[in-house]
């Protein structure tokens, strides 16, 4: 099978229309149509069918597109093995959470543009469960997620994990709240009568809160949910509850951070790739640049 035709079929499965494929790959729509028709003749079965004014993949087309992911990755790996001097080229699709995009991905975008212009990134913000689901469905090539040492995320064995960085988290309370020394359980125990603010799109921090509260012997009262750390801080100032925030969170009028230890909650950022795909040169390059930023 012609590799270029497989690339077009895979792009069609991801982009949904021949026009979008043509624009993305800088070819004409008629070229896309002709090459996919030639591929269908090559494999002996229709790969697309009409769907209103557009086309969609047939079941055979979807199956072949699934195989194309592995075939193209193996082809690219073989090309790189035979010609190590060849520059990485291709589009890496990434789903990552807000902080990882800001602190890890964006700093490497400029470097890629200058040193590896043939490698493009398509980035979308997603919380870890959604990013992981997209990776498993081959909607992205790389997922960057996070969990906590006190609430580890289950990882499917079909995925490979790469550790990026970790950060310590503290209890954020309104300024002038009473100070209680001691372990995490003792500190949280002093706020057993307070409402809690947790993440609205991911329950990992809520699991941490419940784990430490259980050590203190009480069930936390979760009444507020918010997605952005800035909004969480504003809700704390407004008196709506207490929450976990990074220990490095900028000093904010109206908020006091209380250190937590024994146990110390730590958020851990990590990369996820489908097993065996991390050697695809554009993805391998991106992973290498991300790892270098953490050391």
UniProtKB/TrEMBL annotation:
<dbReference type="Pfam" id="PF03466">
    <property type="entry name" value="LysR_substrate"/>
</dbReference>
<dbReference type="InterPro" id="IPR000847">
    <property type="entry name" value="LysR_HTH_N"/>
</dbReference>
<keyword id="KW-0804">Transcription</keyword>
<dbReference type="InterPro" id="IPR036390">
    <property type="entry name" value="WH_DNA-bd_sf"/>
</dbReference>
<dbReference type="GO" id="GO:0003677">
    <property type="term" value="F:DNA binding"/>
</dbReference>
<dbReference type="InterPro" id="IPR036388">
    <property type="entry name" value="WH-like_DNA-bd_sf"/>
</dbReference>
<feature type="domain" description="HTH lysR-type">
    <location>
        <begin position="1"/>
        <end position="58"/>
    </location>
</feature>
<keyword id="KW-0805">Transcription regulation</keyword>
<dbReference type="GO" id="GO:0032993">
    <property type="term" value="C:protein-DNA complex"/>
</dbReference>
<dbReference type="GO" id="GO:0003700">
    <property type="term" value="F:DNA-binding transcription factor activity"/>
</dbReference>
<comment type="similarity">
    <text>Belongs to the LysR transcriptional regulatory family.</text>
</comment>
<dbReference type="Pfam" id="PF00126">
    <property type="entry name" value="HTH_1"/>
</dbReference>
<protein>
    <submittedName>
        <fullName>DNA-binding transcriptional LysR family regulator</fullName>
    </submittedName>
</protein>
<keyword id="KW-0238">DNA-binding</keyword>
<dbReference type="InterPro" id="IPR005119">
    <property type="entry name" value="LysR_subst-bd"/>
</dbReference>
């Amino acid at each position: 099978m012609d590799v270029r035709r497989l690339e077009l079929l895979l792009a069609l499965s991801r982009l949904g229309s021949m026009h979008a494929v043509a624009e993305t790959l800088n070819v004409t729509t008629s070229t896309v149509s002709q090459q996919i028709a030639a591929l269908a003749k090559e494999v002996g079965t229709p790969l697309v069918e009409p769907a209103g004014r557009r086309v969609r993949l047939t079941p055979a087309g979807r199956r072949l597109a699934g195989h194309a992911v592995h075939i193209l990755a193996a082809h690219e790996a073989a090309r790189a093995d035979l010609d190590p001097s060849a520059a990485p080229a291709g589009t890496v699709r990434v789903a990552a959470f807000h902080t990882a995009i800001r602190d890890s991905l964006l700093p490497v975008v400029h470097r890629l543009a200058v040193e590896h212009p043939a490698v493009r990134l398509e980035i979308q913000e997603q919380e870890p469960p959604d990013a992981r689901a997209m990776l498993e469905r081959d909607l992205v090539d790389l997922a960057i997620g996070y969990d906590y040492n006190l609430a580890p995320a289950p990882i499917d064995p079909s995925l490979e994990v790469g550790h990026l960085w970790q950060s310590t988290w503290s209890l954020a309370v309104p300024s002038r709240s009473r100070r209680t020394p001691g372990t995490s359980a003792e500190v949280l125990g002093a706020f057993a009568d307070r409402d809690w603010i947790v993440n609205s799109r991911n329950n990992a921090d809520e699991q941490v809160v419940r784990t430490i509260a259980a050590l203190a012997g009480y069930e936390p009262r979760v009444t507020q949910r918010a997605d952005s750390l800035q909004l969480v801080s504003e809700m704390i100032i407004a008196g709506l509850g207490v929450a976990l925030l990074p220990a490095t969170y900028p000093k904010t009028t109206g908020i006091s951070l209380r250190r937590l230890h024994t146990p110390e909650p730590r958020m851990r950022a990590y990369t996820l790739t489908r097993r065996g795909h991390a050697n695809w040169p554009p993805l391998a390059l991106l992973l290498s640049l991300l790892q270098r930023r953490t050391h």
